[in-house]
Amino acid sequence: MLAQLIQALYNIIDSFFIGNYSESGLTALSIIYPIQLLMIALAVGTGVGINTLMAHFLGVGNKEKSDETAGVGNFLAFAMWFVFALICWFIMPFYAQISTNSQEIIDEVIVYGRIVCVFSFGLFFESIWTKVMQATGNMKIPMIAQIAGAFVNIALDPLLIFGIGFFPELGIAGAAIATVVGQIAAALIVMKKGCKRSPKISKYKEYIKRIYHLGFPNILMQSAYTLYIFGLNLILKGFSDQAVTALGLYYKWQTIFFIPLGAMQTCIVPVISFNYSAGNRERCGKTLKDSVILGMVLMLIGVLCFEIMPDVLMGTFSKDSEVIRIGSYALRVIAVSFIPMVTSLIFPVFFQAIGSAFKSSALTILRTIVLFVPLGWVLAHFGLESFWFTFPITEVITTAVGFIMYSKSRFGRRLSNGYTI
Fold first, then answer.
1. How many domains does the chain fold into?
2. Domain ranges, residue 313
3. How far is the C-alpha of 197 from the C-alpha of 68, rounded, in Å?
4. 0.90 cut: is pTM over it?
5. pLDDT tens for residues 368-404?
């Protein structure tokens, strides 16, 4: 949680400095956000697959196969970076042009997007090596790495954006450079413990197949975020660029309050996978129950902040009165979704950890593809204020379906054992 808190802070600080540099840059960050989410989806999702498979092998006492799984991660990190960087370099102009009509914002999206994508190798390797270490219970070094990377980013942001001292004034390009340098710094810290020897190439096919069988639900879940945020941006583009900016700023603040969920999603997967493989069903159910209760208690903080001082939160980044007006209303409506969102996000990773990839994927598809964008499109026809109710309606429906799936599983049926929710 501490590491993710720092990560959230440097995302917010990025927006703070860019918001003070130019309003167009702030909108550009909102537009490029889905692409950054897609990178994270591939990197973290693959890492989760490696993490879960390693935890499985450790749970059955096979350390050799656990280490071989980790060794395959190096190849996967390089392959993902190379393909992603190559594709993004060529599609970035097209992506920018369909996201906004402002030539100034288009230019800034291309500059920022190409830098953070082409030099994203630090993100991919750090994500894989971090998950390798977490599978063995080593949370300390990944935490230190992410904190160090964040501080590097935070320190470089004002220097490169505004051109302080002997540093050149680079504007939004400076923010992008600061981001990738921070990612590379974090990767270097976890490299020694996270980089494992590769197994024989003949074993790659077997391990990659199992890694992506386990990691695909997470990749799908994270990638779906990219698709639905991109879809919501296109819907809001029909209203104004300020509406797009307001949505982007919501996601910046959301990151802070979602730290408990992000941390628990990371931590409960190997715990549940290990105990499920070891036959300890009771601890699996208890882990789910405790994470849901804790998540709901902590998310109340986000609800209170969004309801009490939304104008302050929006005004931190933007001085545009229209952005503040739209965003303040949006935050109050979206806050209603925070409590049901806990279970709508934790149920998929629970099913993923016990090997129920279909249920995990089904919940993710329901939330992000079946509900979010189509529902947002329908509600947008009734006006911008109605559009924001997309969020609470989606989370309530997803949670209800997730609970039904859980109640019909072996965990939900065995009420007498005392470990259901």
1. 1
2. 2-417
3. 7
4. no
5. 889 989 999 999 999 999 999 999 999 999 999 988 9
